[in-house]
């Protein structure tokens, strides 16, 4: 996990810097992409809160 995190973080930063020059804030494709990424992030958080965390808390693990 440490290796994966240490490799993907700089890659993501470099990708963000490279794409910042062609990113247009108000274009429809940018708004759809941001919306989909926000929705998937929120969905993952809701899933973790409702499915993964409570069973471990209730069963004493």
From TrEMBL:
GO terms for cellular component: plasma membrane. GO terms for molecular function: zinc ion transmembrane transporter activity. The chain crosses the membrane at residues 30-50. InterPro entries: ZIP (IPR003689). It is a multi-pass membrane protein. Signal peptide: none annotated. It is found in: Membrane. It comes from the Eukaryota. Its main location: membrane. The keyword Transmembrane helix applies. This is Uncharacterized protein.
